[in-house]
Amino acid sequence: MDKNYSKQVFFCSTASRYFKESLHGSAAVYKCFIMVEHADPFPAKPTDGHLDKTWLKQLDAVAKKNKGKLLLVRNKGTDYKNSRVIYVDCVTQKYLVINSPVGDLHQINIEGAVADTETKWEVDPFFVVCTNGKKDKCCAKFGFPVFKFFENIFLPFCYGSYECTHLGGDRFAANAALMPFGIYYGRVEVEDVHEIIKQTAFGRILYPNYRGRSRLSFFDQAVECHLREHLGNYNIDFPMKIFKREERDDLIYVQLTYEESNFEMILQKDVVDYPHLLTCTSPHPETIVKYRLISIEKES
């Protein structure tokens, strides 16, 4: 055997960094998340978890019906006796928690709990970090160290954290999401964790790692990011509203409001031939869509 032989291993996250692809406007689009605490190693798909699979499939159907995503989660407090189900509403930015013995999880009616007027909703922020190597090896390689920093860092303003199954956007690993806002961060390194937590405590986002808000479409995320850059405003609370969109002459004209100000924005939709694989297991290269800013003006 040739001792000089070396096998090259492809990592989609490393390729994305090399390509210098922008993170902004790339958050996976979900309006809610259903999270189930799961003590065993994560499977590639949440519905293949080591719990009642019929019940997991029912939860997955509920999540999809509400334009959301099912996640398995765990942290150092997770055990095999007790579990919890968390329903996160990213539109209203709140969540509910149901604690249950593992053997009784299948009895939980999550839709009933969401509809119940007596349900106690919570708003304290927490983080989830994708570490699901069975979905994509980049998520384990880059995500797990980041999760351990979130879980073990000691600061006066720390937040709860979980590792989780696939969040979306393998090539942006390590991926973390701030709940209940549905704020996605990408290319997070262990050195970024302290700053992300600090900015959260101050009510701001860490913009260099900011992918967007999951409750917005990719287009709306792009508009939001362009407006943030124009205003220099990186607050978590960002009350932007698009009230008109028109496409003509290959350009997209947008009218929007932020607080009491009106803006007009012109964007160009670019379809880019991405030269690498979008995930570590993609069969072939694909195209990606970016919305390039042409101009932005404040209306008088």
Approximate shape? globular
CATH class of the largest domain: Alpha Beta
Helix content: 10-25%
The number of helical runs is 6
Quaternary state of the chains = single chain
Question: What do you see in this structure?
Answer:
The protein is of the alpha+beta class and 300 residues long. It is 23% helix and 31% strand. It has six helices and 13 strands. The chain has a nine-stranded mixed β-sheet with strand order 4-3-1-2-6-5-7-8-9. A four-stranded antiparallel β-sheet has the order 10-11-12-13, covered by helices on one side. A hairpin with a 3-residue loop joins β7 and β8. α4 packs across α5. The mean pLDDT is 94.
Secondary structure layout plus pairing:
Layout: H1 12-19, E1 32-37, H2 53-65, E2 68-74, E3 82-89, E4 94-101, H3 110-115, E5 126-130, H4 137-152, E6 160-164, E7 176-179, E8 183-185, H5 190-201, E9 210-213, H6 218-231, E10 240-248, E11 251-258, E12 261-273, E13 287-298
Parallel strand pairs: 1-2, 5-6
Antiparallel strand pairs: 1-3, 2-6, 3-4, 5-7, 7-8, 8-9, 10-11, 11-12, 12-13
Helix pairs in contact: 4-5
Which key phrases capture this entry?
Glutaredoxin; 2 domains; 300 residues; alpha+beta; Nuclear Transport Factor 2, Chain: A; four-stranded antiparallel sheet; nine-stranded mixed sheet
